[in-house]
Amino acid sequence: MGNRPAAVRVLRAAGWIIVNLITAALLTEAVLWLFFPLPPPEKYHRILRQDLPGLKARVLYETNDLGFRSLSMRSARKPERTLRIFALGASTTMQINQDTADIWSAVIERRLNERFGPSGWRIEVAAWGTGGDRVFTRARFVREKLPEYDADLVITLEGINDLCWNGGPGYSYPGPEARIHALGAKDRKLSKRFKRLKGRYSQIYRRLRRMQDQREIEASLKSGRMIRYDTDSLKGNTRNYAQLPYAKEPARDPDPYVEFSEGMETLLSDLKGRGIPAVVLGQPVLWKEGMSEQEAGVRWFYVDTTAGPVRPSMAWAVSEMRRYNERQRQLAEKYGAVYVPLDEQLPKDLETFFDDCHFTDAGNRHVAEVVLPYLEPVVARLLEQRASSGGS
Question: Backbone dihedral region of 301: left (phi > 0), alpha (psi from -120 to 50 degrees) or beta?
């Protein structure tokens, strides 16, 4: 009984500490919201100044509140009489070196609206991906995230990262389900709803998340999992590439082609299971036999092997890219998707590419011109189905 007053005092003191902490947090939130607000973690805004042939000197790389690059998509909920298309890929889809209006998915959106807009339909195209990531990142997105957005059609652009930046020292492939599970382990630490509430209502959370993301970016850059390719970085990348050991036919055991094949199959199988049509773009590259000295001078995509990164022979690189694209064609046929032989139809020159695979502004327009004849019949068929079913 004699210890009760002391215990009460301790509880009261703890209560005051908790109240003060909550009050301080609420006041901090209020000040941050009023005077120093940050956008949601998914939204990104960066002005890039560059000096690269075929690109604007100043561009704005930005994503919307949902993490997409899009001219029109603003909400997870799809508006009425809207057809929603997702372009999924890595840096050749997100295109950090272009304004949103100049990337190939945005060019496609404008052209589709010019054709189908008079019929009363609106076409939304949103690009999503992460530079440097491989196909299983998109396979996981299709399985776990895409259902939130009521997608009508998906375009994929995959291959270059799986070919080049997989299979390094210590590489192993545990299988498709284990790969997807590992990619989602971090996000599963908190429930989807709780994370979204924090990002929506807490400026403190947004700052902590930004600090964490920055640390992860720096760690990825340091480890080589991520590489910058702005003007200055590209010069360093090409110099570093030239110093790598040459390999006529890089030895890769286990062969990461198996992981790419199963990743694409997982992605296309899940889309078919959801009843979402797919258009598969064969990965285009600058690579070709008989490259000019200037063309060879912009190359920097090394190939990972268990012994470390190497410079592959051009014959091997061309053959491997053809093998990866042929597998995409086979899988597209298997799952009823449309395959676009983009690598065969784009000019392999410096008017189209500014390095191994990234497009110039003209290259983005050319991608759209090649893809549209394959895409428009799919869109027309989807709109006819909507009209016949009375859907909106």
Answer: beta
Query: Can you count the helices (H) and strands (E) in the chain?
Result: 14, 10
Residue 330 has which token pair?
């086979």
User: How many Cα atoms sit within 13 Å of 164 on the Cβ side?
Assistant: 27
Helices (H), 46-119: 91-94, 104-116
Residues 6+ apart with CB under 8 A from 272: 278, 335, 336, 337
β strands within 277-360, DSSP E? 278-281, 311-312, 338-340
C-alpha to C-alpha distances, 64 to 207, 213, 357, nearest whole angstrom: 17, 17, 25
Instruction: Name the maximum alpha-carbon separation found in the chain.
Output: 93
Per residue of the chain (392 residues), give pLDDT as tens: 556 677 778 888 888 888 888 888 788 878 877 776 766 666 667 888 899 999 999 999 899 888 999 999 989 999 999 999 999 999 999 999 999 999 999 999 999 999 999 999 999 999 999 888 999 999 999 999 999 999 999 999 999 999 999 999 999 999 999 999 998 775 555 445 555 556 667 877 777 766 765 676 566 545 555 456 666 778 888 999 999 999 999 999 999 999 999 999 999 999 999 999 999 999 999 999 999 999 999 999 999 999 999 999 999 999 999 999 999 999 999 999 999 999 999 999 999 999 999 999 999 999 999 999 999 999 999 999 988 886 66
Phi, then psi, of 156 in degrees rounded to 5: -115, 145
Listed in sequence order, the DSSP H helices in 117-230 are 135-144, 160-164, 176-184, 192-201, 203-223
DSSP-derived 3-state class of residue 256: coil
Per-residue buried b or exposed e for 13-44, using 16+ beta carbons within 10 Å of the residue's own CB: eeeeeeeeeeeeeeeeeeebeeeeeeebbebe
Q: Output the six-digit token pair for 123.
A: 């076409």
Q: What tokens does 70 get?
A: 């899009």
